[in-house]
Amino acid sequence: MKSVISRSLGRRGLVAIGALLLSACAGFGNSPLAPGVSTLPDVVATMGQPAMHWKNADGSQQLAFAAGPGGTQTFMVFVAPDGKLQRIVGVLNEGFFGLIQPGMSQEQVLRLLGPSGTPPTPFRRTGTLTWSWLFCQSQNVQQYFDVNFDAATGQVRSIGQHPWTHGYMPGTPPCQLQNIALP
Question: Exposed/middle/buried for 32, CB within 10 Å: 0-12, 13-18, 19+?
């Protein structure tokens, strides 16, 4: 039991370190977007229409942009109540996947990862609904990250990963990890 607790605490520590490192990276490709300067219309003009958009009670906003080859990138854009860009964060990576916990709602998962890149898959025998995101894992290989929800409650039951093998055997196609954060 002690080793399970130690591994769980170690995993949370790695997730926190990964999130900090991710937020320390600068730039969004070669875009002209700058925190505190760029506005929401600037973001939309540069990145296109968001896949999802949330307005918070304090007037701030969060937008999800799916991007990249094969849909392996999702960027969350955070806009302050004054309409100025706060930050852009790439979320399809192990650091953010580690934040998904049993009991979370579908809305909480969407706020962390954005929309799933594949249609939800129901499993009637087990009473689960699976959402999957294609992403570039740390060895620059495409994989799917799966979140399994209880079909009755809509809460997370479990998470997992599986290889992307659509027509490529024996391995998975290479990709380029580009989850960048604009602090």
Answer: exposed
Written as six digits, the tokens of 107 are 């809305």
- The answer, yes or no, to whether the previous bond of 183 is cis (omega within 30 of 0) is no
Q: What is the pLDDT of residues 36-80, one digit of tens each?
A: 999 999 999 999 999 999 999 999 999 999 876 567 889 999 999
Q: How confident is the model at residue 164 (pLDDT cuts 50, 70, 90)?
A: confident
Q: What is the DSSP letter of 170?
A: S
> How many residues appear in the chain?
183
Strand order through the sheet with 181-182:
52-55, 61-67, 73-79, 85-90, 181-182
- Amino acid letter, residue 65: F
From first CA to last CA, the distance across the chain in angstroms is: 39
C-alpha 22/C-alpha 91 separation (Å) is 9
Other Cβ atoms less than 10 A from the Cβ of 182: the count is 23
